[in-house]
Write the structure tokens for this entry.
Amino acid sequence: MLKGIDNRLNADVLYVLRSMGHGDALVIADTNFPSDSVARDTVYGALLRMENLTSAEAVNAILSVMPLDTFVDDFAGRMEIVGSPDEVPPVQAEVQAEIDRAEGKPRPMISIERFDFYDRARESYAVIQTGERRFYGCFLFRKGVIAPEA
């Protein structure tokens, strides 16, 4: 155990979050996403797991240590529902609430068409598969920076 670090963040996840640089993308995936095959194409090259958590619980833990990018519009994205791209299901609303909480203000995610999401996921730094069983519990986050202390 470490002081001040959410115990839901395992050693492998912490290693990857620390290794990522500004602008690198991280995928948070539900249990139905082809996480293992997609993860092989990422920079990290192996699947990470936070399998006993919902997407929102995993995002809450991750955003407790990882800043989101403030220089781009695609700092966070959600996989669009096929045939209903503007619909935001509860799983995505819960993650949006975690983003807003971590940022201290509303910062809406962009929506990403399903196959574009797969392409972006393959180009990401890493994939973390959660235990989320609800459909469309897949998200992409772009790492930001931590400003120097004054």
